[in-house]
Amino acid sequence: MKPLAAFPSSERRSIRAVLTDIDDTLTDEGRLTARAYGALERLKEAGLIVVPVTGRPAGWCDMIARFWPVDAVVGENGAFYFRYEAGSKRMIRRYAKCPSDRQDDRVRLAALGEEITDSIDGAAIAADQAYREADLAIDFREDVVPLPAADIDRIVALFEKNGATAKVSSIHVNGWFGRYDKLTMSRLLLREIFDIDMEAARSQILFVGDSPNDAPMFGFFPNAVGVANVILYGDRLEAEPAWVTQKTGGEGFSELVDILLVGR
């Protein structure tokens, strides 16, 4: 990872879309600050496509798509994208799996959630689980005493033993049945809504994140950025971002936006 200050200005000026994680990328200590939210607004005002790509649930993503200064949102680690068209007052909801498959998955995931919380002391079903449509979130540090790395690994192993995909964020282990992730749904969104071929335009798309579940995005985009707290994950990252900010969380995101908008 190279310091963000070394990001060439010619490459920065070519960026046309910013995809961003939310927790500990836009937020600081679990809070979305006015500065970070204002940075989102500045990107929109500058004419860039802005899309949060998050592990957070469908219920939250509906609100984000409607109320935040964004063009769409990818949620539950790639289970869907939502886009709100204000002119027609229409919400577009695109899922990776059909309704019956999602219902079947929820039954299996509920049983798996009981197995995990019974097996690992201190692990809990995430408080936002009631608003999820496609995955199971196990809390290891948001509303519980932080669990040691060995227990996080055990949660991942239990998901995988039961045939689920598992990804570690900065606060949850998210598990689901299916081969989709943040990258696959971002590709679908950009093609279907913005007529952008993500492979052809990858150098013009910037992703910013902070944790292991962002690795598919870090590995794909040559101009991926990590906010400074990404360094905490060390060898847990299957792929690293090209650039890293000096500051953590939302302050790091704001630092990135300052640099991106110079000269625009």
Secondary structure layout plus pairing:
Elements: E1 2-3, H1 9-13, E2 17-20, E3 27-28, E4 31-32, H2 34-45, E5 49-52, H3 58-67, E6 73-75, E7 80-85, E8 90-95, H4 99-119, E9 124-125, E10 136-139, H5 149-161, E11 165-168, E12 172-176, H6 182-194, E13 205-209, H7 215-220, E14 225-226, E15 243-244, H8 249-261
Parallel strand pairs: 1-15, 2-5, 2-13, 13-14, 14-15
Antiparallel strand pairs: 3-4, 6-7, 7-8, 9-10, 10-12, 11-12
Helix pairs in contact: 2-8
Give a verbal description of the structure.
- The chain is of the alpha/beta class.
- It contains 8 helices and 15 strands.
- The strands form 4 sheets. A 6-stranded parallel sheet has the order 1-15-14-13-2-5, with helices on one face. The chain has a 4-stranded antiparallel sheet with strand order 9-10-12-11. Strands 6-7-8 form a 3-stranded antiparallel sheet, sandwiched between helices.
- Strand 6 and strand 7 form a beta hairpin.
- Helix 2 packs parallel to helix 8.
- The longest helix has 21 residues.
- The radius of gyration is 18 Å and the shape is globular.
- The mean pLDDT is 96.
Number of separate strands = 15
Work out the oligomeric state of the chains in this entry.
single chain
Based on secondary structure, the structural category is alpha/beta
Q: How far from one another are the termini?
A: 25 Å
Radius of gyration: 18 Å
| Broad shape | globular
Helicity, in percent? 25-40%
| Main pleated sheet | 6 strands, parallel
Mean pLDDT: 96
Estimated share of beta-strand residues: 15-25%
- Reading the helices and strands in chain order gives EHEEEHEHEEEHEEHEEHEHEEH
Helical segment count? 8
**Poorly predicted residue ranges:** none
Q: What order do the strands of the largest sheet run in, or round the barrel if closed?
A: 1-15-14-13-2-5
